[in-house]
Amino acid sequence: MSLRLAVFDVDGTLIDSRSSIFRAAVEAAHASNIDPPTYDQVRAIVGVSLFDALAMMRPDLDNETIAAYTHEFQQAFLRFHADPDFSEDLYLDAEETLRALKAEGWLIGMATGNSRRGVTRTVAKHGWDDLFDVTFCADDGPSKPHPHMLQRNLDALGVATHEAVMIGDASHDMKMARSACVRAVGVSWGFHTVEELQLAGAHDIVHDFTELKALLNDFNPEVLPEAKRASY
To answer: What is the residue extent of each domain of the chain?
Structure first.
């Protein structure tokens, strides 16, 4: 009997962190004495591990400055989470969809550009210990769009590439899935546009969790996705 694995990105896919990530990027820039980024600059790099993401956004800066910017970004998020009034909402029906998939026998994995500390905090906050079979993040190896993080999900659960679906809001997620020969499902409600997801190789694009659940209901692990690999 075939297995079914749904691997989820977090920021922009399950959690609406658009405002907080942009705010952290701006506050960290001010603390690092560099020009603050625009929202479009920030949204383009979300999903990539933090140091690599900031280096991608600001190729004009040296490694020492990027390291300082990374530190200030992390400190900003620590301040946010220390504030009892701070919240990042789950997208509508995210929780219900995860729990429905679990009840139907799906394996559920995570592939996120967050740190392990961030993953632990998120899982604890939302009570997801019983939902995710495995979680892999930026601390576990090469950053998206390298396929390493997704491959770790597959290997840990003994799942073949054609038995898995990668679900994310960023082109980095789609390229990672393509590189791993896994079906790439883009969601339109996060950081990247539908056009960007299409250009990155998304097999499917959904516009809400109801549509995502319907797509996964029809998922046939015996039908191999197109084997085209994307560069990373």
So the answer is: 5-16+90-217, 18-82
